[in-house]
């Protein structure tokens, strides 16, 4: 496997914010904002569909800690937490990762989608999701 994030973790060559046994955080090569950080599980999991819930919990706890550090250390007034998962999501690296992007009022960027999906599903999507969760037709049940 030739995963860029696994290589950074293995070689220790990232610009580290935090290194842990289960999850780690580092600066991306092209940050969107000062303090933009990537948080990843230390072991390779392609996406949110593959990661065990206990590893996801540790990883998202680090996301929360990085977000709080951005607020206190960088005086950010908010953060965007972004993650793409699976082929239809524009996931650029097939290793689960969360972008924590510090934000300030009037900082000049937008990380919110500007359009709406043209995809349509039959029936009420929320009801279909609720049915899938109730019947256990999802990973993790």
From TrEMBL:
Matches recorded under InterPro entries: Histidine_triad_CS, Histidine_triad_HIT, HIT-like, HIT-like_sf
Motif (Histidine triad motif): 95-99
Name used for this protein in its record: HIT domain-containing protein
Domain HIT: 4-110
Organism superkingdom: Bacteria
């Amino acid at each position: 496997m030739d995963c860029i994030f696994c290589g950074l973790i293995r070689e220790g060559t990232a610009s580290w914010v935090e290194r842990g046994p289960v999850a780690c955080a580092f600066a991306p090569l092209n940050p969107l904002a000062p303090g933009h950080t990537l948080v990843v599980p230390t072991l390779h999991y392609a996406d949110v569909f593959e990661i065990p819930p206990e590893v996801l919990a540790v990883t998202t706890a680090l996301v929360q800690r990085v977000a709080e550090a951005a607020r206190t250390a960088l005086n950010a007034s908010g953060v965007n937490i972004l993650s793409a998962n699976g082929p239809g999501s524009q996931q650029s690296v097939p290793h689960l990762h969360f972008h924590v992007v510090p934000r300030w009022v009037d900082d000049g960027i937008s990380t919110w989608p500007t359009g709406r999906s043209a995809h349509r599903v039959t029936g009420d999507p929320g009801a279909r999701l609720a049915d899938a969760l109730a019947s256990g037709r999802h990973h993790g049940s």
